[in-house]
Please model this.
Amino acid sequence: MARRPHPFVFDGHNDTLLEVALAHPGTEESFLTGRQDGHLDLPRARRGGLAGGLFAMFVPTPGWKKQVLPRTGPGGKRARGWDVPLAGPVRQGPALAAVLRMMAAAYRIQALAKGAVRIVRTFRQLRSALARGDLAMVLHLEGADAIPRDLHLLPVLYEAGLRSLGLVWSRPNAFGRGVPFNFPDTPDLGPGLTRAGKDLVRLCNELGVVVDVSHLNERGFWDVAALSTAPLVASHSGAHALCPSPRNLTDDQLRAVRDSGGIVGINFGRAFLRRDGRGDRRTSLGEIVRHVEHIARVAGVDHVGLGSDFDGTSIPQDLGDAAGLPRLLDALRAGGLRGAALAKVAHGNWLRVLRETWKG
Model:
């Protein structure tokens, strides 16, 4: 019997531009020829059937190191879990400079690729890239730290190709507050959106920019849900019921995503998949399948997709990198997701949400 072909994949999140522009500046060509490390480049995307995705522009907090603090209970005894202090805010000017370097790297990749990689700005361009077999790159801002409170730069970034925006990373900024990497914990940590944050949501809706709630705390999430006229998007999150990290969404939040017509892209990060919150490299692909199945039960199969966080987190060793995506699709198929439902999770739900959000 002939092997059934896998559907192509559209992925909700990667941090590859950070790697080629900031961590290893000037290595854009290696994205096309094959990088020596990391998770994603053009050759591995082709081997894995990755046809496109949201390419994040993320600005790290200068000098911040993740500090894991064990919890203690009564009498100083060790308690379950740990706390991680939030990173501090980043200054708007340096953040903008870093974002522009990553955006420039994306355009250099496009130029060097001679058509094999295309930055897409409209759904028509996205559909054309997919039809031609070109890797479709959607520019995404992970944390709006580079945008001043008066928002005057957002239309400029839009004209430069920005089509998706996460309000916060796991730190505070002028627009809202991100959640820490505590475990276990609730996402209901801290205040909601600021006035500038609410204005940012409205302007994104007006321009046709995706508003991404990944990393946002729960009160901020509900502010977005009340304000936004577009589908709710969590580009790289998971189910809090399965892994009680504040980075994951509660079932009530999942139902709100459903009611808006939105999508949750499942984060492949091991620590956001497992019930114990640990980054065990032996974590199986079955953990990703569990999150897909849970969100499909709670919100419906039309509202779950993939949001790998390639090059931004530690993923199951059985997946390895983008070339391993067919193994994940096999695991989803073995779990009972087949045919049209598998295609929706692999790419269809993302394409629908982008079509309904973008202007053109």
User: Anything to note?
Assistant: The first helix runs from residue 16 to 23. The mean pLDDT is 97. The chain has twelve helices and eleven strands. The CA atoms of residues 49 and 349 lie 17 Å apart.
